[in-house]
Each structure stands twice: as C-alpha cells, then as structure tokens.
DNA sequence: TTGTAAGCGTTATCAA
DNA sequence: TTGATAACGCTTACAA
C-alpha cells in the first residue's frame, strides 16, 4: 500500500516530506511568541534585553525539541546563507585538490558551508557560474584558477554584490582580490638552484598561458639573462598543463644535440612529463638532465627520481582566500587587501644535480 | 559615521544588499499574475494549460529582465533545493579526491549543486553532520568513507527523510544503499597475480579497520589458504591508512629472516610506505620483494617502481552514488538497489615480479 | 485559461 | 520586556 492511513488533522496540502521542528513549535512549548524565540536564539544583543526566565525557558524548549533554524528561511529573509561558493577550474589538478581541502576546512572552521562547482568543461564556465549565482544562495565566492577564462565573471558577481576572491592561476590585473604565491621568488629560487649547480644550458617548459605560469617563465628567463645566460627560444616550450602533452613536446628537445642540461618546469605535472620523456630517451636524471618542478604537488616526492620543486603553501593559500571573502562578507564596505603574496620555498630532491662538464651522449651536430 | 544618508523612498528595512529580479517584476512586465509566471517557468504540465500568447510574453519578460528563480524561496516553499550534501571522511585521501571530482561532475550534469563537508577531525563528525542537516538545505546526501564512524548518521538522516548513499569505506550492514567496488574480486586478482609469479611467502598490510579493508584482507587470506598457502599472523600487519605509519610498521617484518617475498597492501597509501621501507632496508623491488597495492590512486604509476595495483573505477563509483541518491530523491517511495558492486581490474606494473628461489640477502637466523 | 490568496520559517519593526 | 505583524520570493489550491 502506497498510501498511509489518513490523519484527520493533516494539513491541507500533501503531508510535508520532512517533519521538522519550527520556531513556532518552540515558542508554543515555551509559552512565548515566535519573535521572542528568534531574539533569544539569534543572541541578538541588539538593544533589547530578555528576562532570564524567558531565555531559560526558550533555550530549554529548543533543546528539548531539537530545533534547528532553517538557513533557507534565514537566507530568504535577507540575512546570510552561510554558504560559500567555490568555483574550481580543474578538480583533477593536484594543487587544486589541496586547495579545495584547505578551503573547505577553513570555511567550516568559520561556520560556513562550501558549495563546490567545477568548470572542467571549457564552455561550461559561464553556465556553471550562472548556476551558482542563479541560486543567490552564496554569500561569497572563491574562484580557483581560470579566472581569465571567465570574462563576465567579475562583472556579474560585482553587479550581484557578491564578494569574490581569486586563487591560483588568476589574472594579475583583475578588479578583485587575488591570493597567490610569490611566483617571482619561486622562479628565482629555481634559477639560482640550477645556477649554483653549474647549469648554463637551460630550458623552460611553460604549462599554459595563465598569468602565474607566464610570470614564472619571465622571471626565470630574466634571472638567467641577468646572470649572462641566454635561453634560446627553442628551449622555451609552450605546452598544455598536462603530463602527456609535456612528454610529447619535450621529446624533440631532448633528442637534439644542443639539449639543455637542466629544465625548469612551471608545474609539477609537466615536470612529470619531462621525467618520462627523459626516461624514454635513456637520459638519466639528474646525471644527464636536471629537472625542477613547481607546486610540490602531492606525491611528487615519491616519483623517480624524487622531484626538486618549488613548494606552494596550499593550506595558506586556501585559508587566506577564505579569510578575505569572509571579511568582505562581514563588511561589504571594507577594503580588503588587493593581493596577498604567500612565500614559497624550494624542496631540493633527487631530480637535480651538478652539471656535467660535457652533456652525456651529446654530439656536435645540431638540428 | 556608521549611518548612511537616508533615502526618502527607501524600503522600511535597510537597503537590500542585492538587487535582484523577482517574479513579481516579471509578472508586471508581462502583464500577468505571478502565479502565471510560475506556471510557465516551472513548466508545470500539471493539469492546467496556458495560452501560447501568455507563455511567449512571460518568457520574453523573464529573459529581458534576466530573471533567476530563487532556490531559497523554492526550497522554503517545500520543493527541492537542488543541493546535494557530500560528506567526505578524508579529503586528502587520493581516492576520495577522485570520487569528489566524479560526484561533483555527475551532480552538475544532473542539475544539482554539491555542498561539501569534510569530516577530517575525528570528533567533528557528528558536528559536521548536524551542520549539514541543520540547514535542511540538501535534498540528499552522499557519504564518502567513514560511515561506520558516524553512529547516529543513518538514523538521523532517516528521521529527516533525507536519502543517503554511502560510498567507499562504508559498512556492509548499514540500512542504506552503499556503492562499492567488488573487493572480493580485487583481492582475489591480487592473490592470483602473486601466486602466478610463484610467491608463497606472503604478507598483508591492512590499512585500518573499515569493512572494505577487512574484506580485502579476508578474501586474500582465504584465497591463499585455498591454494594451500598459510600466511602467518605476524605477516598480517594492521596499520593506519597512512604512508608513514605503514613504513614504520613493516620495517621489522622486512628485517626478519623469514620475510615475505610479496606483500599485498590494502591501499596504495600503505603500499607507498612499504616501498619506502624496502628502499630503506636495501631490498630491491620487485627482485627482493613484490608489492601489490589497492586503489590505483593518482600518480601511483609514477612511483618507483611503478605500482602494481587493483584499480577502482572512481568515476563509476561517484556517478553511481549520485545516480542512486537522485533516484531516491525523485521517488522517495521507490526502492533503490541496496548495493552496487563495481568491477575492478588489476594494473600490473613494475612493483611485482617472479619469486626468487631464495630470498635475496636472507639468513637462517630469525628474530 | 488566468488571477487571488495563503503559507513555507525566519527576522525586523512597531506597538503594547 | 514581549507580542503581533509584515515581509522575503515562490508555489499551489481554489476561485473566477
């Protein structure tokens, strides 16, 4: 039987799917008005005061009934939903996963839930955004990566008066606060490390066109130039931020006689591709080739050889972003710091070593 | 001054933080009643029909104003919030990260947003759950891992009439649908692989006490027994599902003269610990020791040596779980399949090889 | 075929 | 110090 026995006093509409404790019930039990319950529970110290007796009764009743205020109703009424929107460019990028972890936990610590949206599909971006906004459920938004690919994003969020903070591979010149690591320092650390090891024939693998990536490349090249080292254009390889793409793209370079003795990779994912390509080409790392990565992503220390990499503080990045959005939510008129540079450090591992006087297996013939 | 200049025609309350298009405005522009707009927009084929002319005007007005229905109001009114709760036991466990990715994308494809909650802190579990429920915002919940650690979870969700589906390391005997891989087949595959390679001195590293993990152990041991192989209790090592814990725990085993020639690890994370311990002990893998993992987590193929592992279909697991919850949401009276076994397969890589006649470096003295 | 009105649970304003 | 009341934006009987 699908139908339950009819209840004579059932409400006019279909039986509520979820029986839930409402404020009115608490009020009834406590023998006060709903508004009083609200006042007690919201702890509204606002001007009015409440008799101890009443407060006690209300709290007791709420406790007894297991009352939980509906965030839906609260949100509708105009206050906060305590929901934070999170738009992630690529949920499979290891750094982004760490960021999500950090963001979720920081948000929880501050009493917020996180509504997560992934913008993996290239065209889905706008769509996704609309879905988040459409609900108008979120008090603020953190965008991880790909800010540049969402042209109307900032504007639309701004129009909706929803605070946004960008995180990760975001633009330098947007109109919203962006939390990033100190890419300049990171790229410089990478260069200095290789330079100290005696490397002068360098290459750079550029993982995509995002501003952060480009910054890393530029700073690295500038540092090299300042040290009197020229990196030939053919040694600056543009590639998608994917391991397989990098592996394919650097193969010709490694096969050439003029191949570099060291490679700076702007992300670990492409560094992994370089390691694979070297292995395939029979070039030993670090003896035949030194490789520096960027991100120090999960498990990069377990690769073979373990990867020397510029470590980003994912936890710091995530929690800072959350902190900034929540500040903006709490005080919309306040000016949040426009940008936050988090320090990086170099994790030196087995993928880098001293430059050999002569590249192993190199011939004089170029191509 | 905190107070803003007064606006004579301002609404009684403080100025709405977010100006938004409401249904009433659409109705006004279209020259119809709000209810009509609702009918048109919800596509309510329910009994009533609407004149083409009206429908056209409503749609045009909605489009022109950029109207987006408030999910808040909808949810409050009793319908769906289109929000899916996601409770993740450990957001840093690589398999869980893949599951989150799959879940988020599947949910999006089906028009749902995902509210994510992490239950990393051991005591925060109940707290977290309460927070998700407290909002009563979610139409359903997917719980990834750790279902057993949340005693009251199922009951409470059941009481709230919120559909739940468990995923991953969940209990076998709960009262809710659980989506899992075929652990039996996985453990058997692992054993058969090692047996074919001639291994008879086996060990098992058990990563925690979750039912799935225990199942893998039991099936592996049973298969061994059936093949006439006894795994001594000292070779069954219980350990937390962490790399460092595993590394420490197996060190004595590897140092013993009676050490196994092959180890079955119930997760890749502990397999990584075993690989490290072997490396530290100077035991070559796979020559001195074969290692099989479980999960085939991200990057395990890039370890050294690359890990032979039982691959779980994270994508299939995630999307199936979402499918089941949404089915339950759409039809609360329907009976969803109680359990779903997803197939696994063995990825054979470099960490397993034929058993040596005599364990390398073994002595006769035990300890 | 469409409009009217009530109500979802909460909070803010006003009056008592 | 507290209670009644009116929104918030939407859906859905019921009436027209």
Tell me about this structure.
- The structure is a homodimer of 367-residue chains.
- A 6-stranded parallel sheet of chain A has the order 2-1-3-4-5-11, with helices on both faces. In chain A, strands 7-6-8-9-10-12 form a 6-stranded mixed sheet, sandwiched between helices.
- The first copy, chain A, is α/β, with parallel strands linked by helices and 367 residues long.
- Chain A folds into 3 domains: 23-74, 434 Repressor (Amino-terminal Domain) (Orthogonal Bundle); 83-181 and 314-342, Response regulator (Rossmann fold), CATH 3.40.50; 183-311, Rossmann fold (3-Layer(aba) Sandwich), CATH 3.40.50.
- Chain A has 12 helices and 12 strands.
- Chains A and B meet through helix 4, helix 5, strand 2 and helix 6 of A and helix 4, helix 5, strand 2, helix 6 and helix 11 of B.
- Chain B binds a DNA duplex (16 and 16 nucleotides) through helix 2 and helix 4.
User: Structural class of the helix and strand makeup of chain A?
Assistant: alpha/beta
Radius of gyration of chain A: 28 Å
Globally, the shape of chain A reads: elongated
Question: What's the SSE pattern of chain A?
Answer: HHHHEHEHEHEEHEHEHEHEEHEE
Number of helices of chain A: 12
The CATH superfamily of the largest domain in chain A is Response regulator
Largest sheet of chain A: 6 strands, parallel
Q: Which runs of chain A of at least 5 residues are low in confidence (pLDDT < 50)?
A: 1-18, 359-367
Which oligomeric state applies? homodimer
Distance between the amino and carboxyl termini of chain A? 81 Å
Domains of chain A (count): 3
Range of strand content of chain A: 15-25%
- CATH topology (level 3) name of the largest domain in chain A: Rossmann fold
Largest interface, with Cβ-Cβ < 8 Å?
A-B, 59 and 60 residues
CATH architecture heading of the largest domain in chain A: 3-Layer(aba) Sandwich
CATH class of the largest domain in chain A: Alpha Beta
The average pLDDT of chain A is 83
- State the total count of DSSP E strands of chain A: 12
The side-by-side strand order for the widest beta sheet of chain A comes to 2-1-3-4-5-11
What portion of residues of chain A is helical? 25-40%
